[in-house]
Amino acid sequence: MNPERWQQVREALDRAIAVSDEERPGFLDRLCSGDSELRAEVESLLHSHEDAGTEFLQKPALDLASDAAHGSKARIGRRIGVYLVLEQIGEGGMGEVYRAVRADGQYDKEVAIKLVRAGLDRSSVLERFRHERQVLASLDHPNIARLFDGGTTDDGIPYLVMELIEGTPIDAYCDAHRLTVTERLRLFLQVCSAVQYAHQRLVIHRDIKPGNILVTKEGIPKLLDFGIAKILDPAATASATLINPMTPEYASPEQVRGEPITTATDVYSLGVVLYQLLTGRSPYPKDTRAPHELARAICEHEPARPSTVASRPL
Amino acid sequence: MEIWGSAVQGNSSTQVTQLLGRWRSGDREALDALVPLVYDELKRIAQRYLRNERPGHTLQSTALVHEAYVRLTNQQLPQWQNRAHFFAVAAQLMRQILVDHARAHRADKRGGGACKLTLEDAEQSVRQVDVDVVALDDALKTLSTMDPQQGKVVELKFFGGLSIEDTAEVLGISSSTVKRDWITARAWLHRELDRSATL
User: How many angstroms separate the CA atoms of A235 and A237, rounded?
Assistant: First the structure.
């Protein structure tokens, strides 16, 4: 197309885009009267304009190249250890989670593979992982997702292989099923039994939050990522400059202060979860969002009794 | 082992600033001297992005060109005209770097068809937008013969990762003109890529 013709076409296209769908045919009739070639061209480009949607070329080229090289898409259909990656099922502060299956056909049960986000110190993560894996793999409880295995991908990223749990976070589950207080407590007691079981084996979860307590279709709560926070916790190493993966909303005062963690840490987080399940809100004042404000609320704020803040009858 | 985040040597940052100034006042040779400096720096930063895992989901190209500018000129308070000139060069070089990168991938996977860059959308659904960067580069060359300004808009926005506003600043036109150029150029390019994909 020569430049003059293109100017004519793009001018017409530009104006046609601004016109509503209903008015467009009449508008094009007037605009391209007698020039059927122009009209065909504009209509074809209008079609492309719609096909292009909002995404086409929206993300800069380098980001696309980077996604292709490292993004989750690059993992689908590839192997991680002896597992074949089927699809991505999640993405959290810790890294991406995939659904996968044994590639050698030895077992056809699907597993969840969690890749540990780079940026954390890999060698110390791996060292802690080797240290902890046997303890964690020995946790065998109906309400705890099993840890099967782990290792490093070909490109050096640590990963964990876990029981695949398909479920809904406990808070969303309770609301979606409009559970009564008694039903909520029954569910919560099962979570407590899982935590008690682990504590008896001297394993602390360290990151209890609704997102780590999934309730299955059958109504069974399953605790995910038991002890994983310890493997990932940079505070356990000398390098203190890394980001703490701990979820502040459910953290205990000792976690916020960087003090030693005990089984009471989990009990505190369970308390925050229970508070939310019963009241529908956080025990801390509203609008406490910034990490430093939240940290202060966690250490200093005396929460109101759940019975006085329950916003609605459950 | 490269050390990232370290500032470029003082000499070379003064050099880049001076070259930008000379180029702005019409010295074409200054541009010739500038290009290799900017190219090397951009390539190093781009490779870091491509080699390492992503720091997050931020738009990296935008950060990259700005980072390159700060590092090369050592100007925390950018001189606006210099900055616009720098972005223009940088976007052009980024295009070259990324098209070369895509070509190299094509060669790697010979027989595997074109190397497509994949974008997962925010909802992480199955829907995806593929862009064959090499084909896009070809189409963009054709577009530039029909409308050089539209070609520049696409180069700055897509390859340079610049915002509408920065693109407008570089080209010395209004933001609304950039938007119009962008929308019609996108429609045309989308059609060209569709056609080249079905050939």
Answer: 5
